[in-house]
Write a structure and sequence with these properties.
- 67% of the residues lie in helices and 0% in strands.
- It is mainly α and 124 residues long.
- It folds into two domains: 80 residues, Helix Hairpins, CATH 1.10.287.1080; 32 residues, no CATH class.
- Bound molecules: magnesium ion.
Length: 124
């Protein structure tokens, strides 16, 4: 059964509230996100491309999936506590990304220009 981001957020918020987890400040939640990202990153460390994932066992896929969920747990709680509706901002951001990264653009060229410029234009 698929769930929307808002539904997942509510499940996560309810989960935390039932356990009395309400004293985390933004730094706590951000640190938890970083830690869970590091745990996720361990599974990808030293792997060069996705074709190698054909060798990943079902058990490791499960572990990777659980790490993604761990990241989402903290990320969605941080967004909720910050009164950020991710769905709303996703809908606002997607058209901007579509405009910025047009289909059919030579991104290899754009990447070279970015590296040669020394500027962080991609994130401005
Ligand atoms: Mg974890």
């Amino acid at each position: 059964m698929s769930k929307s981001i808002s539904e997942l957020t509510q499940i996560i918020v309810d989960f935390a509230e039932k356990r009395g987890w309400k004293n985390e400040n933004p730094s706590h939640l951000l640190n938890a996100i970083y830690i869970e990202l590091a745990e996720l990153g361990e599974h990808y460390q030293w792997k060069n491309d996705f074709s190698k994932y054909e060798t990943i066992s079902e058990d490791e896929k499960t572990e990777i999936g659980f790490e993604f969920v761990d990241v989402i747990f903290y990320l969605f709680r941080l967004a909720h506590n910050s009164e950020i509706n991710i769905e709303e901002y996703f809908d606002k951001k997607l058209p901007k990304l579509e405009e910025k990264y047009k289909v059919g653009t030579d991104y290899g060229k754009a990447h070279r220009e970015y590296r040669e410029s020394g500027k962080n234009k991609r994130y401005e």
